[in-house]
Design a protein that fits this description.
Blueprint: H1 4-35, E1 39-47, E2 50-58, E3 61-68, H2 74-77, H3 80-95, E4 104-111, E5 119-125
Length: 129
């Protein structure tokens, strides 16, 4: 049977599959960061202004990390609107964590796709982009 109900079920399955793939990509990105000696502070942070996949600290640096499960360049992967939402969510998070106020902040991107090793792009964008 094809029609609206069958199509709806199929799109729901596709969405669930994409969500599972995204969670697996975030887990792989978290492992990569740990191997690079980062300490994970938060994962899947959701705020009223945006969300952040991973927040990690190494030394005097706090990295807000967006994880994308696909191939492509950083400029193709994150729109200006997405970058703004990530920055606003980071500002809100930092306002709630005075212990991190004096740390350097960086916005990173980890691209996971195909059969390649995950690609960690440090300073993929700046807060004022």
């Amino acid at each position: 049977m094809t029609g609206p109900i069958g199509a709806s079920r199929e799109s729901k399955r596709q969405k669930q599959k994409a969500e599972r793939y995204g969670r697996a990509a975030e887990s792989l990105a978290a492992v990569l960061l740990r191997l690079k000696r980062y300490r994970l502070i938060a994962r899947d942070l959701r705020t009223p202004v945006g969300e952040i996949d991973l927040i990690a600290q190494r030394g005097n640096l706090v990295a807000f990390v967006e994880v994308k499960a696909r191939t492509g360049e950083a400029t193709e992967v994150l729109s200006a609107g997405q970058r703004r939402r990530i920055v606003r969510a980071a500002e809100l998070f930092l306002a709630s964590r005075p212990d991190l106020a004096r740390m350097d902040v960086r916005f990173d991107l980890i691209i996971i796709g195909g059969r390649r090793w995950p690609r960690h792009i440090q300073a993929a964008f700046r807060a004022d982009d």
